[in-house]
Amino acid sequence: MRSRTLPIALTAALLAGGCGAASGEETEDAAGVATSAPDARLTLVADEDAVASAASASRALFDRADVVVLARDGDAAGTLLGASTATGLGVPLLLEPAGGGPADALGSELERLGTTTVLAVGAAEGGGDGGPEVVAVPAVPDAVAEVTGLELGEAQQVDGDGAAAAVAGLDAEQPAALQPPGAEPATGEAGEGELPAVERAEPLEDTVVVTTGAPEALAGVATARAAGARVQLTGGGTDPRGSAELVELLAERQPGTVVALGAGFAAEEGLDWKLETATTGQQLPGGGQLLFPEHFLVALYGSPGTGALGVLGEQDLPESIERAQAHAADYEPLVPDATVVPTFEVIATVASSVAGPDGNYSTELPVEELRPWVEAAGEAGMYVVIDLQPGRTDFVTQAELYRPLLELPHVGLALDPEWRLGPNEVHLTQIGSVSIDEVNRVVTWLADLTRAGDLPQKLLLLHQFRVDMIPDRDRLDTSRDELALMVHADGQGGQGDKQATWRTLRQTEPDEVAWGWKNFYDEDVPMLTPEETVAVEPRPNLISYQ
Question: What PROSITE patterns does its record include (predicted)?
């Protein structure tokens, strides 16, 4: 019986629910080893205990293994060399508890696999009367090579932080002999018993194992390599959209099954759809599919064709791209921990002093007029934000007009409540505002659009320089991971006033929002330099120029 099946084809290979045999037809061959990919598109191995995690990984990828390699949990030398050995033999690497002897997880998995011989490396005992025959070998490459007949590669010292990556990169034909750094040279001879010859099973070439590289997952990484699966580290994150390397790999291989290996994945909501999004291969400018904190945006603000609304329209399209790139370049040495991305924030609907034919006091620029700017920016590796000044209509109604642009992977959306009028209001007579309920309707609309298109995370930017522009902002819906929400403090004037506005707005923040800062060429007294801008605390994730 397989592990319990979670909604949307998500299988959890957790031992808490008991031990079940993997499905698939057994391979009758001399080796007594058989692999099979999980039935579900996504399988979760999220045990917090290393012994249980090793057994769960084995259960997810192996149907049978007459021979397994065993190391003791906490024995770095034995586990690393055991990983090399298991990869070379093509058999699972299991762990016994630090106290020695089989635990329930280990014993159950040995029974399920039909294991008859255990190769105990290093401190492992493989104890227990009546269990599999134990061949003990010290954590010494030469001793392991003698017992197994493997041709191990050169010894490679790896520390704890690099252990998972080293195991993931092992070559099954000639695996390096992994060892902890500074370890005292181990000595000793193999114990009694004979290790039978092992012939590798069919490799699981259609399976990718994604791992955070957490310590409890190390044995599972070795088991995955032994099974012939590709292993890709995420860099520590549990959202597959956050790793450019993983997005590229999934798009290239289009695997039939994915195993998420690491305890942290248990808390990652929506792992299934995030995986499907990553598999599209669409990446944001600067790489990956998550905006912050991986990226730092530097934007020109305005509307094409006119300099009256901001610096974006002060020059033609090629010169605007060059100007945005130049601004971004100023920040690259100042923000070494993020990828600096030049950006356009394009005012698509412009607040008007007259009602216009539709009576909404807003002039909507045609999509086809903006498309050359949006597409050219994307080709230049830039991000684009579509800015709305809706007048007397609502933000969702106007956003729908620009759906064709927002369906592009490098395009986000900005709401400008200053220009959101009530039924009897006109621009410049009062400062506009928007209800949090209307903002949350935009959140839902844009997140649904993003999910439906399997698009990278989109920016939803909220302009604000007074608290009453977005009353009850603490009720902002921050539950949709399809979006990166940002409050953009765009007040102008003396730096004392701007900093006071910044502090006031931050007092009403949800913790989950990012922050943006605007520099005004003419109105700020003085305008901050790039060095001074990144010194604003907390450091903004977007800097725009108007």
Answer: PROKAR_LIPOPROTEIN (PS51257)
